[in-house]
């Protein structure tokens, strides 16, 4: 960085068939204020809609073309991070519109501590710009994500605007200096909502901070969810449980983990995909030897205890499901039970 110049940041944009939104993402990145945008690396995961050609029309954009669609989002992320030449790298999907001062505000929070490895923005729905898509996230002790303000209006949650810890988001300013080899995301994990969560958990597990700045705003284009992400819900969750949790924690959690599996199987059955639940759990069995090998390496890096990361706040459920009494009331009872159980065992973890 030149003396007296704004902080220089490279950008890694993940792209797969982003014809509808990629140009918007690029324009919003280059409109960033008080930040010098260095190179923008669009990592294209085998797009078939020609969206990668849009990126080539921008100056300071390099398209990294993967030979075929890998479907491995963490491989795509790491490819962009490794290509970046700056200490701080903005990692983003191709369906995000950044406010002009978003990157500046992310960078300001990262300046507050050398142990801060990631800072994320508050994401709002692109089609409902006062409603939160994702901001501060936690990690529930059953191995699920806690999306604290998902689908709430900003005016209903803005009692304080200070940075807070977070455990998820694929949209982040990354402190590359903290990483050992430039590989921050686990490339073995399948495509799912939890693919980025392993990175955040590992960073906190090893004593680093990951924060969300609610003053840094960006907008996300919501899309229909696909069943292909079901693999990640099953396999990534158990990978996290078996590699990061202590054996004592897992032993204490046996009753609720059994309950959660029964409920998850019931949900897969309602969705008419119980065969996928069985298939992906069988994959967990096949990968068990490698999982245990990774566990030994990961546990050697532990800096904090499980109870310092895990929580028991309400699990997130889609607004479409919560409107149905058949889901709403049992789900509320489940959350109450999980909170009560956590209260009984937390002191022992």
Characterize the structure shown.
The structure is a single chain. Helix 6 (230-244) packs parallel to helix 9 and helix 8 crosses helix 9 (274-286). The longest helix has 21 residues, at 325-345. The chain folds into two domains: 8-220, Spore Coat Polysaccharide Biosynthesis Protein SpsA, Chain A (Alpha-Beta Complex); 227-348, no CATH class. The protein is built from twelve helices and 13 strands. It is 38% helix and 21% strand. The chain has 349 residues and is of the alpha/beta class. Strands 1, 2, 3, 4, 5, 6, 7, 10, 11 and 12 form a ten-stranded mixed beta sheet that branches.
Supply the key terms.
349 residues; alpha/beta; 2 domains; three-stranded mixed β-sheet; globular
**Which regions contain 5 or more consecutive residues with pLDDT less than 50?**
none
Assign the CATH class of the largest domain.
Answer: Alpha Beta
Tally of distinct domains: 2
Topology pattern, helix = H, strand = E:
EHEHEHEEHEEEEEEHEHHHHHEHH
CATH topology of the largest domain: Spore Coat Polysaccharide Biosynthesis Protein SpsA, Chain A
Number of helices: 12
Give the percentage of residues in beta strands.
15-25%
Rounded radius of gyration (Å): 20 Å
Going by helix content, strand content and strand pairing, the class is alpha/beta
Spatial shape: globular
The CATH superfamily of the largest domain appears as Spore Coat Polysaccharide Biosynthesis Protein SpsA, Chain A
Let me know the average pLDDT. 91
